[in-house]
């Protein structure tokens, strides 16, 4: 049970004590926070997987959409006033949120509100950057009257108690707090990278630098921004209005807001390890599934006997919407047994005389007699024909794999028909197979 912290400094009184492993900061602090999730990302590095949907709406781990992890983190942290800013190919995402996230009770001032790009400040402009997406929704934020605003990306896979980050923000007397994660120095050029002093105050911030600054004392690692920010509302409004009036600004937190405020304001780094949810003996799990290889690998991570990200931990559940479907079914056909090993098989699947190894099947997938699936991610409503073989594949929704087709066996042949990633993962969509994409979302 959580205990109130009588030792807390005056600025943090009323904040729950999170020193114990697993403690939550569901308190007046989280109730006074509004979260805005930036979910308008194009996700172009996911190739044709985002041809009909935005990155946050992409399916993940057999049952979920990517955005479910961020939304669940908010709800589980006690932050239940949430806005979702959408833009790029948002229909699938909007439909998912309407169906799966309507359980919050508006009578208690709890909600998930969709915030589509509406050109609210300029009839000629959609969201120009991350900061602009928040700026254009300031009227809605003002109506909610929050003390704090949490700005968070909606396209990463992780479990995090945002309440601990909020509490650290208050304790540190910060104007802005930036969540960060340690990454190898060779990968840091893909992130916003920060340099910090001995008290984790940010002294420099560079977006996607060619020569990233290393962590003091550890030249092989850097502190990368997770795209998660906490502000006191008044300070955020001041900075967004200033940025909107600045000619030439790209309207982005990483490129404009953070570098501009470092000299005159207190910006603190918050280590992901201090608020990640999971076993304290494990490395905190956070993944940007922005490429086909990263997406495939993160799904494969879920098939391990003891994955680093525990989907079965009911103390921090991942909420979602899914159709009510019958249980998965395994049957014999043509003298062969339907079987699956080291795999996740979702509801409504029918494995008829086929075999599945080290793979992840979403709902309503049918595998017919003699089909073999290995090291693959199969999205909903796919049918794999008799004798077909799939190796290291991502098969998009509603594909019909013809009888006897082999995919993932010959990269050169696959490249003529499908997309093959740098690590040899083959992406297959219905359009690549010459099939209809009606009802594809």
From TrEMBL:
Q: Which GO terms describe its molecular function?
A: glucose-1-phosphate adenylyltransferase activity
Could you confirm whether the keyword Transferase appears in this record? yes
Looking at the UniProt record, the site noted as Could play a key role in the communication between the regulatory and the substrate sites sits at 87, 126
- Which reactions appear under catalytic activity for this entry? alpha-D-glucose 1-phosphate + ATP + H(+) = ADP-alpha-D-glucose + diphosphate
Query: Which residues does the annotation say bind alpha-D-glucose 1-phosphate?
Result: 127, 192, 207-208, 225
The UniProt keywords, alphabetically, are:
ATP-binding, Carbohydrate metabolism, Glycogen biosynthesis, Glycogen metabolism, Nucleotide-binding, Nucleotidyltransferase, Transferase
Instruction: List the EC numbers from the record.
Output: 2.7.7.27
Role played: Involved in the biosynthesis of ADP-glucose, a building block required for the elongation reactions to produce glycogen. Catalyzes the reaction between ATP and alpha-D-glucose 1-phosphate (G1P) to produce pyrophosphate and ADP-Glc.
How does it associate, per the subunit comment?
A: Homotetramer.
Descriptive protein name? Glucose-1-phosphate adenylyltransferase
Protein source organism: Geopseudomonas aromaticivorans
Gene name, per UniProt, is glgC
């Amino acid at each position: 049970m959580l205990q109130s912290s009588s030792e807390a400094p005056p600025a943090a009184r009323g904040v729950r004590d999170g020193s114990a492993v697993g403690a939550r900061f569901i308190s007046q602090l989280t109730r006074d926070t509004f979260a805005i999730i930036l979910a308008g990302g194009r996700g172009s590095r996911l190739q044709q997987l985002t041809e009909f949907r935005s990155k946050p709406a992409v399916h993940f781990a057999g049952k979920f959409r990517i955005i479910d992890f961020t939304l669940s983190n908010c709800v589980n942290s006690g932050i239940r006033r949430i806005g979702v800013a959408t833009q790029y190919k948002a229909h699938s995402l909007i439909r998912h949120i309407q169906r799966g996230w309507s359980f919050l009770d508006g009578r208690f001032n709890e909600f998930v509100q969709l915030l589509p790009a509406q050109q609210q400040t300029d009839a000629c402009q959609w969201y120009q950057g991350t900061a602009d997406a928040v700026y254009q929704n300031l009227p809605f934020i003002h109506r909610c009257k929050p003390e704090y605003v949490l700005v968070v990306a909606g396209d990463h896979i992780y479990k995090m108690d945002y309440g601990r980050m909020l509490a650290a923000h208050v304790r540190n007397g910060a104007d802005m707090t930036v969540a960060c994660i340690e990454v190898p120095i060779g990968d840091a050029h893909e992130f916003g990278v920060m340099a910090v002093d001995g008290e984790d105050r940010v002294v420099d911030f560079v977006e996607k630098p060619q020569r990233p600054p290393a962590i003091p004392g550890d030249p092989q690692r850097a502190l990368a921004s997770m795209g998660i920010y906490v502000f006191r509302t008044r300070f955020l409004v001041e900075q967004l209005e200033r940025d909107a009036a600045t000619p030439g600004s790209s309207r982005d937190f990483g490129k404009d807001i953070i570098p501009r405020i470092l000299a005159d304001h207190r910006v603190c780094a918050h280590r992901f390890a201090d608020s990640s949810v999971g076993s304290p003996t494990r490395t905190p799990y956070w993944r940007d599934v922005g490429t086909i290889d990263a997406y495939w690998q993160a799904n494969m991570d879920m098939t391990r006997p003891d994955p680093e990200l525990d989907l079965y931990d009911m103390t921090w559940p991942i909420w979602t919407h899914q159709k009510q479907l019958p249980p998965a079914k395994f049957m014999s056909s043509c003298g062969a047994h339907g079987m699956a090993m080291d795999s996740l098989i979702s509801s409504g699947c029918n494995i008829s005389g086929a075999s599945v190894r080290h793979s992840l099947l979403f709902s309503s997938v049918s595998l017919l007699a003699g089909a073999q699936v290995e090291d693959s991610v199969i999205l909903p409503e796919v049918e794999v024909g008799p004798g077909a073989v799939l190796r290291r594949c991502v098969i998009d929704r509603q594909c019909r794999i013809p009888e006897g087709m082999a995919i993932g066996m010959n990269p050169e042949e696959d490249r003529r028909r499908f997309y093959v990633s740098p690590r040899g993962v083959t992406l297959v969509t219905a359009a690549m197979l010459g099939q209809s994409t009606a009802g594809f979302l």
